[in-house]
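thoughts on my protein:
***
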Amino acid sequence: MIKDTIVAIASGQVNQAISIIRISGPEAFTTVAKIFKGRVGTTSREVTYGWIHNNGELIDEVLVLWFKGTNNFVGEDTVEINAHGGVLNTNLILELLLSQPHVRLAERGEFSRRSFLNGKMDLIKAQAIHDLIMARTKKQAQLSIKQFSGKTSIFINELINDLLNIIAIIEVNIDYPEYDDVEVLTTEVLLPKLEALLAKFEKTIEASERSRIIFEGIKVALVGTPNVGKSSLLNALIEQDKSIVSDVAGTTRDVVEASFVLSDIVFKLVDTAGVRKAKNKIEQIGIKKSLEQIEKASIVIHIIDATKQENEFDKLIQEHSKNKDYIKVYNKKDLNPSNFDASDKILISAKHKDISQLESYMKKHFVNKISENEEIISNTRSLSFIKSAFSYLKDAFLSLKNGFSPDIVIVDLTQSWKDLKTITGELTSDSLLDTIFANFCLGK
């Protein structure tokens, strides 16, 4: 049982219209009542008006929200003081609350942790709150809301129950074989059940891997021979001058990084040194880094000068780009290159920011592949446990297929079930909870 009372500013340390000071725990109501000149709330949800004072000295005019009992986000007595949004007066109220007996400053994410411990939400919802707060794009926010709404929790709990039912029937078959009213789980009966479960897991893992780019972004290497317009393309994509643009070949000798958002997906661009026969040691290092960036990138955009023939270094770039999403882009269309067949090619003018063909290609091949209707696990920790659960389930399936009896595979099935329970937080250590909630904001 939680015995201490915690307090923190929930609205951030900036001057704003309204600030919120949240206090939660067994002493929340009595603590606020000591410094509040107004009517104290008595029902489960109530708003009252008054003044915060320190021994009669008025500090601020406030609205106070009183949440009695468990019918609130935290799941225990909670009070939220809505004050004027000055940093000074907000901190004066916080200091006044902290001066009262049995009240301490909340740790990062402690209100959310109490909400989890009080059964108001599972870990999937808790992590979705954090993702929503940190969202940079509309897609990130939408995916976080979907998981916070409970749809993902329902899906995971369905998998948990499906596995538990199979485990329970196997155990009954082992311990009470004489029961006539229990389904007999032979290998022939069990294999299709596990196969159907594996298909659900596989579909979710594949969709989750695709959707990870919504939160993590896609790393894109801009590569090519010197002076083909790599830096100009980076500047055109991010709509500002980040890379040095010059007619002198080999201007970019180090890696330049920048990001831009296209259809709510973050693309992390890396502008690299031109690939050619190095003239000096510094340039040689830059070219080596360029080839290394190809290895690290998910997408390689190979820029080619449309006014010139491709050369051996373009072939070297293509060779290094095997097993990557590779896009060949022809630049300098503004120079009206002669004898150039533009059909089925991406033709741009980075200098004049005419890059619509490239953006359309990127939308079609990388953005539109993500379906928001599929079951998705965006959190890296949760996805790792889904994969682990899938692995144990697959081992059980293959063991059955290879002639092992159901009572042997129950060990793998149980471990798969435990991994799923870890995702929701039903089987989670205190140290793991510390790690998860430490990433939250103070006051959340």
In short: Residues 242-253 have pLDDT under 50 and may be disordered. The chain is about 45% helix and 20% strand. Residues 100 and 312 are 75 Å apart (CA to CA).
